[in-house]
Amino acid sequence: MAVSASRAYKGAETMQEKHEITQEENRAKGRDFYEWIQALVYSVLTVVLIFTFGIRLIGVDGHSMLPTLQHGDRLLVLNSMFYNDYQYGDIVVLTRETFLDEPIVKRVIATGGQTVDIDFASGSVYVDGKLLKEDYINELTFTEEGMEFPLTVPEGSIFVMGDNRNHSNDSRDSRLGTVDTRFVIGKAVVLAFPGRDSITEKREFGRIGVIA
Predict the structure, then answer these.
(1) What pLDDT digit, counting tens, does each position of 60-102 carry?
(2) What are the beta bridge partners of residue 110?
(3) Catalytic: 18?
(4) Which phi and psi angles does 193 have, rounded to 5°?
(5) Is 174 noted as a catalytic residue in this protein?
(6) pTM score, two decimals?
(7) Rounded to an integer, what distance in angstroms lies between the CA atom of residue 47 and that of residue 51?
(8) 181, 171 in Cβ contact below 8 A?
(9) How far is CA 180 from CA 45, 76, 154, in A?
(10) CB neighbours (10 Å) of residue 29?
(11) Among candidates 148, 203, 165, 181, which has minimal Cα distance to 67?
């Protein structure tokens, strides 16, 4: 009887240990699950904050930036809160406070204090007397839009043009002219999703990447 009691005691002790181990395992799983949920929530909040205050996804409307950008391209745009030192060559998005109804995408040609001159006969563009080597344009600049040149860009403003020069409403248009940088949403940094090619109607996914 003593042996049986001892075995029963040991059995009860073993069951208690197993129960305690199981409880500890469940608590560990609960902690792991909580930490996983917490990490997921933080990740989602980080993405939301980045896209709310740091980066925006904006689509290209129209063909004024051919051949660099297509109609329907989706761009990741770095908010002007984080980038406002605009330089020649930057592709920027302007707000609807401009003369057009929707945000527009253009390339910075000159910044505050610089002088722009355009020879519409030869299609050449000069900044501070130097001819620009514009290997990104679709064609030379022959179309006048009302602004008089040479033109000196006011401080705090930029002069912008589309790469599809003769099919673009931009700073050559007297209704827009030079653009106060307060009306710039930000700089386009990445082509996130391609629109359809204007000729083939196909999407060229090889174009995805950093915008030059």
Answers:
(1) 999 999 999 999 999 999 988 778 899 999 999 998 655 666 7
(2) 159
(3) no
(4) -155, 130
(5) no
(6) 0.74
(7) 6
(8) no
(9) 32, 22, 9
(10) 10
(11) 165
The catalytic position among 64, 157, 168, 171 is 64
Residues in a beta bridge with 173 = 146
Please, what is the end-to-end C-alpha distance for the chain in angstroms?
A: 89
User: Torsion angle of alpha carbons 69, 73, 76, 77, nearest 10°?
Assistant: 60
Per-residue pLDDT at 29:
59
Task: Return the structure tokens found at 174.
Answer: 């007297």
The residues pairing with 55 across neighbouring beta strands, listed in sequence order, are: 78
Two tokens at 2?
A: 């003593």
- 103 upstream amide cis, omega within 30 of 0: no
SS3 207: helix
> 80, 106, 157, 187: which is the annotated catalytic residue?
106
Q: Are 162 and 134 in contact (CB under 8 A)?
A: no
| Main-chain dihedrals φ then ψ at residue 162, nearest 5 degrees | -85, 155
pLDDT digits (tens, 9 = 90+) for 97-123: 556 667 899 999 999 999 999 999 999
Over the range 200-209, which residues count as b (16 or more CB within 10 Å of their CB) and which as e? eeebeeebee
How big is the chain, counted in residues? 212
What is the residue type of 184?
Answer: V
